User: What shape does this take?
Amino acid sequence: MMSGWDSEKMIGLAERYGTPLYVYDLAIVREKIRKIREHIHPAVCLFYSLKANPNTTLVRKIYETGTNLEICSLYELKVAQMAGCSPKHMLYLGPGKSRQEIRQIIDCGIRYVVAESMQELEVINQVAEETGKSVQVGVRINPAVAVKGARLQMGGAARQFGIDEQQFDEMAALIRRLPRIRLTGIHTYHGTRILSAQVIAENIAYILQFADRVIERHRLTLDYVGVGGGMGVAYFDGESDLDIARLGHLSQRSIEAFAAKHKGTSILMESGRYIVAEAGMYLAKVLYTKVSQDVHFAITNGGTHHHMAAGGMGNAFRKNFPVRAFVPERQQVHRYHVSGPLCTPNDLIAKHVSLPQLQPGDIIGIARSGAYGLTASPVLFLSHALPREVLLDGGHELIVRERDEYMVPAVRLVM
Ligand SMILES: Cc1ncc(COP(=O)(O)O)c(C=O)c1O
Assistant: This one.
C-alpha cells in the first residue's frame, strides 16, 4: 500500500503545489473499498463516513464507487449533495441535531435518519407535523456491553449517543404514541479504531441478535439495521493492520443468518478511517534545524493545526504516526522532534523519531494521514493558512482544496 509514496514523486508534488500539503491517492481508496466488498458479506451496504475526510471531490469519487454516505451535519449534507449523492443513499446521524437541521433532513427526504434520544424523537415528530409529512426513523442504540478492543469507545457505558439498549421498550412505546414517525431502523456504533477482526465480528453478531429479538418482540418491519464498523488501521509501533479477510470470515455466519431470516432488512456498515487513512500523506518542509539540550529539532511549516492526530490527540500516551523523510541517501541519522510553526510546546508532529540528518528545504511526510487530518484539527489556532489538498487520480493531479490564507470569512471588523 505504501509503494506509491516515493521520494521523487513527493518532492515533485511539494515543489508544484507548495507545502504544507495533503496528498490523497485515489488508487488506495478504491483498493480499500474493493477489499471490503471482496471480503465482507454481500448483504452489507457500505457507507463512507464523511467525518473522516469531507473533501468534496474525494467524497464524489468514493460515491462513484457505489458507496453510500454517512453524514452528521448540514455542511456534510451539502458536501454529499455537491458530490451528487441521492438522499436514498444518505445516512444521517448525530446526538445534537437542531430543529432546523431536522427540518432540512425531512425536506430533502434522507432515507436513513437516525435519532439518538427520546426527546429528539419527539422533536422529529413535531417538525414532521409542521411539514405535513410522515417520517421513517431509525434509532441509535447504546449497547449494554462495551467493546473490548476499541481505541475510542462509543457505547456500552453512559453515553450521549443513542438510547440505552435497556430503554428500548420504553422508546418503542413512545414511538407508537407519535403519529408522524415510524420506526424503520436500528443503528449502533460500538467504537472506532478497532484492529481486531474478532472484536468487530462480535459487535456485528451482538447487534444483529439484538435486532432479531426486538423485531420479534415488537413485531417490527425494519428497513435497516446498522451494525457500526470501527475498522481501524495501524498507526503506531507494535500495531498490526486489521485482517479484513478474517473479519469477513468471522462475520459471515451472523450476517448470513440475519439476512436469510429478514430478507427486507438491509444491513448497513460505516467506515471512514479504513477507507481513506492510508491514502493520505501530509507533506511539510523543514524550515530550520537546531539542537536544544541535546535534542535535535526539525522545525517545519506544517504542524498540529493541520494534523492534530499526529500530535497525539486521542491517545493517552503520545506515539508517532509513521514519518518519512523524502531526502537523498544520507550517512547520519538523528532522533528528531519534528515541530511546526505554532507557539506552543505541544506543536510536535513527531517526537524522538529516527530520520536521516535533515536540513532546511527537506520534505518530510506523515503517512496514513487521509483520515481525521484537517477535519479533526484546530485549524484556527495561530491563524496560519489552510493547506492545499491534491488528489492523485491515475496520472492526474487534481487540486481539490486551494490554499486558504483567509480562513475566517465570517469574521467581521465591527467599529
Ligand atoms: C457513528 C459513527 N459512524 C462512523 C464513524 C467513523 O469511524 P471510522 O472513521 O473509525 O470508520 C464514527 C466515528 O467516530 C462514528 O461515531
About this structure: The two ends are 54 Å apart (CA to CA). The longest helix spans residues 197-218. Residues 49, 52, 70, 93, 154, 189, 192-193, 229-231, 270-274, 371 surround pyridoxal-5'-phosphate (CB under 6 Å).
